[in-house]
Amino acid sequence: MTEQSALDRAFMQQTLAYGARGLGTTGTNPCVGALITQDTPDGPVVIARGHTQIGGRPHGEAHAFDRAGAAATGGTLYVTLEPCSHRTIRAATPCVERTIRAGVRRVVVAMADPNPRFRGLGFALLRSAGISVTTGVLEDEARHSHRGYVLRITEGRPMVTFKVARTADGYAGSAAGGPIAVSCQAANGWVHLQRAHHDVIMLGIGSVLADNPMLTVRLPGMAHRSPIRVILDSHLRLPPGSRLVQSAGEVPVWVIAAETAPVANEAELVAAGVEVMRVSAGPDGHLDLREALQLLGARGINRVFSEGGPTIGEKLALAGLTDEVIVSTSPRTLGSPGIVAVRPALAGLLADPDLYRLAESGLIGHDRFERYERIA
Ligand SMILES: [Zn+2]
User: Fold this and answer.
1) pTM over 0.85, yes/no
2) I need a surface site. Which of 12, 118, 264, 314 has the fewest CB within 10 A?
3) Cα 149 from Cα 115, distance rounded (Å)
4) What's the total number of domains in the chain?
5) What is the residue range of 194's domain?
6) Distance from first CA to last CA of the chain, Å, rounded?
């Protein structure tokens, strides 16, 4: 590896980490990281960083240029995704134009635009303006960071992270139903951080009826980052008195129901501020999960965090719709047979090296966690 490419990788690593800060907050836009360096006699130094801001504007590059001002001239721009070259309906200056105007000498990019309509156009425009362009630096890492956006553009659906917590003997809940405190406090905090990095948190009605959860982000200073709460509820059984419905005015609640669900239940939920959408049900009477996710994709949702329950986790994975799986295991045991957290079919998929790879594992507080990524 040359000295330049080692430097490029180190700066891109920082750019990716900075860009990931805004995950779950950028609306339909990808969450792009950008970093500007300037050469000095002692080597390159970072003069500004940026990431896509809340709601998607300014873009990451524009945010970094706003911060750098005239100091960007002659520098190098690192960016996690090919800079945009087209004007949107909001008529903001495309990042390619900002980059040319800023007078940077060199642009280093992790991955090309996944949209075939625009792929490569940003690179071509930059090069035709005399800027040196290096592509593909830490591309795999960038693909992971932008996975939700890439899937929405290429497959019309968001990425799905399925998370399940279990006891040491493998249970997500007691046989009688109702919540059991599975995770330690540190692991719970980590789960809330994961929620904040997704656009939507999605749950089956069974888990809602059992636990009456709030599904918000309860971390100091991050309450405003609670994702939209989506409930998969074929027959519209969500109780109007539930904590979810009662708080629909503060954090949105969307319910995805079957076309056949009772109209009266819909009217009651809508009156309480809940948005109800309908998809077709399969022959088994359960919602068509791919159609449900495509509906979310059409609404501009890039990242879905599914916290259950085990049945939905298994169905999503069997349909090839689970892109990441997080399993956390507490040292505590339930001690009697309960609801199995990782059902046999999901366990089989996770153990197949052609389908999933163990990307990360470790301890958070007392709990062990494993994060799997879908390969195929
Ligand atoms: Zn842009």
Assistant:
1) yes
2) 264
3) 10
4) 2
5) 157-374
6) 30
